[in-house]
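Trying the structure run again after the queue cleared.
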Amino acid sequence: MTRAPGISIKSVLHEAPEFKLKEFIGTQTVNVLSALNPELLNRENLVELAFNSAEPLEMLRNTRYRRQLIDLLPLAKARELADNLEIRVKDNSLYNQIFSRASKAEWEPTLRKFFGVVIPERAPGDAEDDVTEIHPNYGLFPHQRMVANEALAKLREPPYKVLVHMPTGAGKTRTAMHIVTEVLQQNPGRLVIWLAQSAELLEQAAAEFEKAWSSLGAFNTRVFRYWGKHEPDVETALEGFFVAGFGKLNALSKKNGNMILRLGDRAVLTVIDEAHQAVAPTYSALASCLYEKKPGNGLLGLSATPGRTWADLEADEAVSRFFDYHKVILRGPGDKNPVHFLIEEGYLAHPTFRTLNVEPGFELNQEDLDAIKKQHEIPESVLERLASSELRSVRIISTIEDLCKRHSRVIVFASTVSHAHLLSSILQLRGTESSAVTAFTDRLSRERILTKYKSSSTNPIVVCNYGVLTTGFDAPKTSAAVIARPTRSLVLFSQMVGRAIRGPRAGGNLEAEIVTVVDPQLPGFGNIAQAFMNWEDIWNEP
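Done. Tokens:
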């Protein structure tokens, strides 16, 4: 019988010596597991830990993992791979030649095929048509209607711009869709352009508009998806809802500036999701071009955090200036903080904030402190050092397992990509269902992981992520969050907290638990109510 070509990554690891498996996993992971459960350090678990160290695609693209995988190949398989890579050398230099050639980008498809790593050509996130026809039960809570009506009033008079400020979890996107559909109803034959950065936010907007228009629309219209692999003919975008990524639209403006001007001619309203980012030079120029092209065009910003920072007044005030100090804020009765009102009424969960104090095992030097001050954020080098702290990871894992005794869905914001995989793999070995989601997770795997996470299963499920689930991720069953990624960004902190505080009247939970890992010398924040009101002073027109 002819043997099937290639070999899976897991099969390679199954054949590896135990000391090589430990090298593959890394000293930190082995030591963390040894401190928690030394009896779990058997060969079978070492294989699982090695396989879960990173996504398969990352293993092939990461120099260290790729070198180790090639070195672990049996000689017969190494010869087979060499043949696939069109290498003709003697065995004594075979592995070095394989590594050298496999490191070149043009040979990655061959390497993926040999190890059985598949990238779906069209994953669920990209499966929607570029242009979809939709045909006409989508209501608002009273406080949402108030915001929508006030925003519409401001969009009807000069300067035709306004920022909508609503807490995370309060239905900002749903409220905005009522504004959008009302504008389109009153302006048939025109275009509403929705701008955002991430694919998650963009697809959320496109899907939410389809739902809204099916209930609220009076005529057929179209949705244009213009980001990632989506490539509708922009010339045909004459009316409807045009959802575009900032990056892709900016590339179009450089290639064909007249096309952006034509879009501005067709537009009646431009919407900027996560509008605190709008004042970045590239984004502000693009948004201004669309908004200013035709008199009477509207500009609508959406944000739970209408400032860029928490300590840089000049940067924060740039956001308010961009919208000419026109803002509609969700208000509670009297002088009550809006977040407190939403919690009392059950729209947001009642959050319990607590801290996990951890000594990371190192002190910030002056270079670190200067970098934090200059960047207004924690440098990646510091995050990497935090992620490498074994004691810190042990404490975080114990905290997650404790949360799983009271919560069925827990989201973890890890310090780095590798930290997300470390936490998830050890939680799995210790009996907690857990997965890691990072920028390296392909769309098909991400869809599978998050579908299971959002399912009706009552068993505790944990998702450990880095950098991808802070916005555009809606999982109302989430009732606990562990913020193990320190940040100086009040915007990012609010977004992370927001993933776990959907209230019962909005399909969520009565209570939520937020654990923030506190590292000495690094900044942190208190609670979401304080965060919401942080920028009020800079929105008072001078």
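Residues 483 and 516 are 5 Å apart (CA to CA). Worth checking whether this holds up in the mutant runs.
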